[in-house]
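Late entry, evening session. Most of the bench is empty. Finally got around to the prediction I had been postponing all week. Sequence below, unchanged from the version circulated by S.P.
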Amino acid sequence: MKKFAQLAIPYIAWAVMMLIFPVLLMFLYSFTEHGNSIISFSFTLEHYIKFFSDSDFLLILWRSFGIAVKTTIICLVLGYPIAYFISRSKENIQNILVLCITVPTWINMLVRTYAWIGLLSDGGLFQQILGLFGFEEVSLLYTEGSVLLGMVYNFLPFMILQINTSLCKMDQSLLNASADLGARPRATFLKVTLPLSLPGVINGITLVFLPAISAFFIPKLLGGGQYFLIGNLIENQFITVGEWNFGSAISMIMAVVMMVLMMAVKKVEVHNNGGKEDE
């Protein structure tokens, strides 16, 4: 046992340096400001007060919540039927369909988002298709719709795979028992399939909502800098403005928001499990 513990030391050291230390550093930066010398710091809550007292920053936060909620709802509405269809297919067909869902994720997300710029730009494929129906002057790129489209495209596979996994693990004998007892397909779905698939739905919502609310390069590329979200604000503070302290404060605010959301999701999951946590 001692030998295995020693083997874990490099991984623990890596986790401390690459995960814990940066978070602690941002936490320190968020509550301090530079003094007259390089090593001189003073404690302050100014950065947090600045964020919550500025209506523009609160508007950006609200807009980020809005786009994340819309993305999650669309991914759920589109993802559940797709996952249900995959889970009800033959096993060899399931493998092919899952592969079709996962293959696009093998390509870097940044590259896939860049591809949408060409498709949505003026004279692009989508505008040409709309032109056939008389919508030649419709601007598709650098709008909220283009940002939402990019979000859904990039995060939809996470929703589908989570729900599909939950549906495939379902005990099929429960569905057969429901049918034997005279339940119609709709009643079986609402009373058996849907409740048993909720863990996958909750996991899918978590995997879509959390990255969507903090995404920065999707709105930057497809929004053209005109659709500013909280992730863009953090990037701007660190890279463009150079306000590391204020950027750290915003990052810590978002970290707390995400932790609260994850705790809420965990409580919902425990409630669905009859008050028992997963072992």
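Two things to note before I forget:
The chain has two domains: 22-53+246-274, 60-242.
The CA atoms of residues 119 and 132 lie 16 Å apart.
Will write this up properly tomorrow.
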